[in-house]
Amino acid sequence: MNAIITDVAYLLTACAVTYVAHYYYKYFTRESPLPGPFPLPLIGSLHKIHGNIDKYCTSCQKKYGDMFELWICSQRLIFLGNAEVNEKLFVGSLSKSNFTKRSVSENFEALGFSRIGLVFNNDSSSWNYNRKLIEQALMKPSFLRNLMDDIQCIYEEMEGYWKIIESKEPGAVHDMADWCIRFTTDITFYMSTSKHAYCMASYFNKVVPDHKINVPGDAVNESEEFASRTQTYIDSLNFWYFWSPFTVNYIPGFSYMHKKYKDNIKWLYDRIYKLIYARRAEIKKISEDVPLRPDILTLFITANTERELEKVKGVTNRETLRPMTDDEICYNIFDITEAGIDTAANAMCFTIYFLSKYPEHKQKVHEELDSVLGPNHDRRIAYEDLDKLQYLEAVIKESLRHIPIIPFAFKISDKDDFIGGKFFRGGQVFFVSFSGIHNNKKDWPDTEKFDPTRFLNPIGKNTFLPFGGGPRICPGRHIGMMEIKTFLASVYRKFDVNLADPNAPANEELGFVNHCKKCEVRITPRNC
Ligand code: HEM
What we know:
Blueprint: H1 2-28, H2 46-49, H3 53-64, E1 67-72, E2 75-80, E3 101-102, H4 106-111, H5 124-138, H6 141-168, E4 173-175, H7 176-193, H8 199-207, H9 217-242, H10 245-250, H11 254-285, H12 296-302, H13 326-357, H14 359-373, H15 383-388, H16 390-402, E5 408-412, E6 417-419, E7 422-424, E8 429-433, H17 434-438, H18 477-494, E9 495-499, E10 508-510, E11 514-516, E12 520-525
Parallel strand pairs: 2-8
Antiparallel strand pairs: 1-2, 3-5, 4-12, 5-8, 6-7, 9-12, 10-11
Helix pairs in contact: 6-7, 6-18, 7-13, 9-11, 11-13, 13-16, 13-18, 14-16
The protein binds protoporphyrin IX containing FE.
Protoporphyrin IX containing FE is lined by residues 118-119, 131, 335-336, 339-340, 343-344, 347, 405-406, 409, 466-470, 472-476, 479-480.
């Protein structure tokens, strides 16, 4: 027995020594070595990250410069933290770019994410097709016009809830982190499907239980479940990104979570499929001379069919000329809802935080709103007004510079290339740090200062990338900005918003995105 134990111990030791030797052989013989933290076998620098890879990399950037290497387990990542070293990664033209793909984990591959939808899709032909159809849908004039109205209707609903709360409890404290996420959930759901998610209504019913808003019972339960499952999905991304396939499949506890997360996605897909079938049936019943409502679901169903709403000029690419299948519609709607809710909500919330922290900029925003929108607060904000709100836009941008909602992206090269003067083989993973780029002292003097006026003059190329860059740049950037601007303009034209605790921190926490955990404010009518 003892002999067997000794043999097994020898075998394990031999395996461990071989693994360590191989790990460091790979490390010391790597091509184009860069400075960076010295990695440990198995974990690399994982033990130093303490849950926030963005903050860890920012501290490494101070020590090792704008281009360094970081090992996560046995994977070598190349950190790129300024506009110059990132230049090739942000070439916009698809045919000229060597960076058309994201780095996705083995779990994402196994779950099929790398072949469907948009966000993690690395199948060039499927991604290209989905991307073109999504871009076409999001730029249809009828869609944009309707969206402007929808945003304001949903805002007015929220303002109505605030007024009831104020009438019951003057000077009440509102958590904008809670309101903003419900606001963007309601908008995203409505612009995608023309269905009400009732997220704000059901939240209001929770906050003010003795003043229930009449919402169809099933719809509330369904909407709350949809919203909470959306958050669960966002959590599952970190889980699947950072844990190995072995861990999630075979280690008890992890395998339970893996199954729970897979069931969660299935639930969300099932709901979207139901909506697609119902909408297809509705469209069939509507006579061809009656215009259809241009929500994203209808735009996808009718794209490249007889019922297409408006042709977008200049789109001639033959591969986009076929209609979308139900699977494609489902995955694309899913990606749009998942990518559009948290991002816009947190951008709104952090901007409110910064405006409260810096009243001198809030004052300028108030003045600009008064001059552009005039004294009649019942007048709806027009699409054309948004362009004139330059100071508000500068404040939003400065907020996104300080706290980029997506602080980094993992990109992978299609083929061998020189980056920052160093040679890398195709397939190398690059950690593109938007935080690093936004805080680079060369491009942003006095980086710590909250100074929106930086954005009133032209800025350096690729120095500000809250929506990413290159062929995978965010396709929702225009409507994201439209939502944020319209929301903030609607709030600040009428109200003054102040932090309940003037010394409160921004309360940011990095999950899959930088989110605002809490932003407690008091909302009071302006004296103007
Ligand atoms: C403030 C709001 C938003 C921010 C800060 C934001 C930021 C980003 C960033 C940084 C990326 C990665 C780009 C890259 O890899 O270079 C991205 C991708 C994406 N975003 Fe957004 N986004 C926002 C709003 C939206 C909205 C409203 C939608 C949907 C309507 C959306 C849909 C997407 C999709 C589908 C992708 C994946 C694109 C692809 O891989 O081809 N985003 N976004």
